[in-house]
C-alpha cells in the first residue's frame, strides 16, 4: 500500500485531541493536514504540552492546516431548482488530488456530497450519477468510475470514502450499477473495460469463502449457512473507535455489556452498510450499545452482490467464456435461492435481514425489503405483498420513511433518504405498481421543492412524516449540498410512468 498518512500515527496527540473534544465534530481533526513530519509534531507536543500556558487548540492551528469548507458560500439566489442543481455540480466538483493528510489522492475529477463530506463516498456516488446522467455530465460519471476502478486496483476494494481512516471497510457495492449506467451512454464495451475491476471487487466481498466450514462458518464478509449456501454480511477489518467519531464510539462501548472491540467492529460494520445508524442493527431498538451488525445477513447487501454476479455473468457471456458462464450461473442461482430462503417471510409478506447466530429473521421492518424488487428477484406475488406494506406502513406525506421505529437515529423514522426513495420507486415500477410509485415520486419531489423554496438548499435527508420540520438525528447536524439528493431529484422528475 502507498505511503499514506494515518491519523492514528499521531498516537497520544490523536487520542488527546479527540478525547478532549477540541472541535465540535470529530471528523474535523482527522481531515486536517500536518504541516510538519509526524515525528517532528510529536516531539514538539511532548516538549510543549506540560507548559503552563499550553493551548492544545493553538498547537493544532500552528502545526496543522485545517480543512476548508469551500462549498458553503454558494447561494441559489432563488434560481429554478433544476437550474440550481445543474450549476451545483461544478460547486461540488473536486479536481484530481495531491497528497493531503488523510485524503487518498484520486487521478480524476469527482463529486463530493457537500459540507463536512469533503471526499468522495462510494454508494452516494451512484445516486449522484443518476443526476449527472440527466444533466448530460457523462464526463464526470466516467471520471468517477475511473477513480473507483483505480481504488480497486490500488487498494483491492473501494473504501467507504477516499480517506485513510476508511481503509478498514467499503460501502454497499454499487460499482456494477455505476458501470452499467456508463454503458448505457457508451455501449457494452464499457462492461468489458471494467471486467478486471468488477472481478476484483467481487473477490473482496467473497474473500475467505473457501475457508468456511461447520467449525468456522464466518470469515470477514462471508457466512456459511446450514444448508451449505453462502451469503454476505457487513464487516470492518478494525475493532477500534472510528477516528471520525472517536469519542462517540467510546461512549457507546462504555454503555454496552459486550466487549468493546466487538462493539467497535459492529459500529464500523454498520458504517459500511451506509445506514449509520439505524435500529435495524440493534438488538434493542432504542439502544445503540446493543448493536449487532456482524451477526446479521442484510437482504440489500446480498441483492447488490447478486447483481454483481449477474453483471459478471453478462460479461462472460459477451466473451463466450464458457467456464465462467457455468460457474456464475451456479452462483446466481444459489444466491437467489438463499435470499428467498433466509430473507423472505411468507406470513408477513416481507423481506427481512437474517440473524445467522440466532438462526432466525429479525422481523425489523425497513426499506431494505425493496431491493429484491429493484433487482427483479421477487415473484409477482411477493412484490404485491411488499407493495401493500409500503403503502400501508412506509408511505408518508414527504416520501417513504426508512424504518417504522422512531429512535433518534438518522436512518430511522421520521427520516427519508434519497437513495431509498429511488430504490423504492424503481422497485415498484419494475412490477407494475405504478400508482404507488407515482405517490412515492410525487411526495418526495414535493418535499424537496418545499425545503428548497424555503432555504435555497437541498438536504442530506428529510423528515418525511412532518414536512414542516427538518430532519434530525445522527452524529452531526443535517447537511446541505447534497450530492445524492440532487441526483435522485433530477432522475425522478424525468421519470415518466
Question: What descriptive keywords fit this protein?
Answer:
mainly alpha; Glycosyltransferase; 3 domains; 16 strands
Summarize the SSE layout with pairings.
Layout: H1 12-19, H2 26-30, E1 33-34, H3 38-48, H4 56-63, E2 64-65, H5 81-92, E3 93-94, E4 110-111, H6 122-134, H7 138-155, H8 175-186, H9 189-193, H10 195-206, E5 218-219, E6 222-224, E7 230-232, H11 246-255, H12 260-273, E8 296-297, H13 299-319, H14 322-343, E9 344-345, E10 350-351, E11 354-355, E12 360-361, H15 371-374, H16 380-394, E13 395-396, E14 399-400, E15 415-417, H17 418-430, H18 434-455, E16 461-463, H19 483-493
Antiparallel strand pairs: 1-2, 3-4, 5-6, 6-7, 8-11, 9-10, 11-12, 13-14, 15-16
Helix pairs in contact: 6-7, 6-8, 6-19, 7-8, 7-10, 10-13, 11-12, 13-14, 17-18, 17-19, 18-19
Determine the oligomeric state from the structure: single chain
Tally the helices. Answer: 19
Note the main sheet: 3 strands, antiparallel
Give the helix proportion (percent range).
40-55%
For the largest beta sheet, what order do the strands appear in spatially?
Answer: 5-6-7
Distance N to C terminus:
48 Å
- What structural category do the secondary elements indicate? mainly alpha
CATH architecture of the largest domain: Alpha/alpha barrel
The first-level CATH class of the largest domain is given as: Mainly Alpha
Beta-strand residue fraction? 5-15%
CATH topology of the largest domain: the name is Glycosyltransferase
The number of E-state strands comes to: 16
Radius of gyration: 22 Å
- The average pLDDT is 95
Uncertain segments are none
What is the domain total for the residues? 3
Shape: globular
Amino acid at each position: 500500500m502507498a505511503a499514506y498518512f494515518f491519523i492514528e500515527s499521531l498516537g497520544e496527540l490523536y487520542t488527546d485531541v479527540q478525547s478532549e473534544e477540541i472541535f465540535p465534530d470529530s471528523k474535523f481533526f482527522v481531515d486536517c493536514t500536518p504541516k510538519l513530519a509526524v515525528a517532528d509534531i510529536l516531539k514538539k507536543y511532548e516538549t510543549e504540552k506540560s507548559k503552563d500556558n499550553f493551548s492544545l487548540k493553538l498547537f493544532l492551528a500552528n502545526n496543522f492546516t485545517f480543512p476548508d469548507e469551500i462549498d458553503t458560500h454558494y447561494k441559489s439566489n432563488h434560481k429554478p431548482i433544476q437550474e440550481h442543481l445543474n450549476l451545483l455540480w461544478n460547486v461540488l466538483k473536486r479536481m484530481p488530488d495531491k497528497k493531503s493528510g488523510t485524503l487518498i489522492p484520486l487521478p480524476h475529477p469527482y463529486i463530493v456530497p457537500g459540507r463536512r463530506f469533503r471526499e468522495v463516498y462510494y454508494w452516494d456516488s451512484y445516486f449522484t450519477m443518476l443526476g449527472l446522467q440527466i444533466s448530460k455530465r457523462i464526463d464526470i460519471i466516467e471520471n468517477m468510475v475511473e477513480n473507483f476502478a483505480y481504488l480497486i486496483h490500488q487498494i483491492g476494494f473501494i473504501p467507504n470514502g477516499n480517506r485513510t481512516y476508511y481503509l478498514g471497510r467499503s460501502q454497499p457495492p454499487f460499482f456494477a450499477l455505476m458501470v452499467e449506467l456508463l454503458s448505457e451512454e457508451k455501449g457494452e464495451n464499457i462492461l468489458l473495460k471494467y471486467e478486471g475491476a468488477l472481478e476484483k471487487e467481487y473477490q473482496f466481498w467473497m474473500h475467505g469463502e473457501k475457508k468456511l466450514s461447520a467449525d468456522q462458518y464466518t470469515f470477514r464478509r462471508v457466512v456459511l449457512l446450514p444448508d451449505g449456501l453462502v451469503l454476505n454480511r457487513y464487516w470492518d477489518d478494525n475493532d477500534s473507535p472510528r477516528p471520525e467519531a472517536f469519542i462517540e464510539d467510546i461512549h457507546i462501548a462504555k454503555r454496552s455489556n459486550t466487549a468493546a472491540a466487538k462493539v467497535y467492529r459492529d459500529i464500523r460494520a454498520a458504517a459500511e452498510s451506509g445506514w449509520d445508524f439505524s435500529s435495524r442493527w440493534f438488538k434493542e431498538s432504542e439502544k445503540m450499545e446493543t448493536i449487532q451488525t456482524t451477526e446479521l445477513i442484510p437482504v440489500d447487501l446480498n441483492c447488490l452482490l447478486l447483481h454483481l454476479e449477474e453483471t459478471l455473468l453478462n460479461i462472460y457471456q459477451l466473451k463466450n467464456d464458457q467456464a465462467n458462464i457455468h460457474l456464475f450461473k451456479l452462483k446466481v442461482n444459489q444466491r437467489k435461492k438463499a435470499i428467498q430462503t433466509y430473507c423472505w417471510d411468507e406470513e408477513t409478506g416481507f423481506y427481512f435481514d437474517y440473524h445467522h447466530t440466532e438462526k432466525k429473521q429479525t422481523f425489523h421492518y425497513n426499506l431494505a425489503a425493496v431491493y429484491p424488487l429493484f433487482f427483479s428477484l421477487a415473484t409477482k406475488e411477493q412484490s404485491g405483498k411488499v407493495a401493500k406494506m409500503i403503502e400501508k406502513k412506509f408511505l408518508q406525506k414527504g416520501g417513504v420513511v426508512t424504518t417504522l421505529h422512531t429512535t433518534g437515529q438518522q436512518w430511522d423514522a421520521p427520516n427519508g433518504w434519497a437513495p431509498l426513495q429511488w430504490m423504492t420507486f424503481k422497485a415498484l415500477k419494475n412490477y407494475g405498481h405504478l400508482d404507488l410509485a407515482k405517490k412515492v415520486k410525487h411526495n418526495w419531489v414535493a418535499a424537496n421543492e418545499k425545503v428548497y423554496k424555503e432555504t435555497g438548499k437541498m438536504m442530506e435527508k428529510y423528515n418525511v412524516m412532518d414536512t414542516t420540520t427538518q430532519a434530525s438525528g445522527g452524529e452531526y447536524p443535517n447537511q446541505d449540498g447534497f450530492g445524492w439528493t440532487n441526483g435522485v431529484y433530477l432522475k425522478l422528475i424525468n421519470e415518466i410512468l
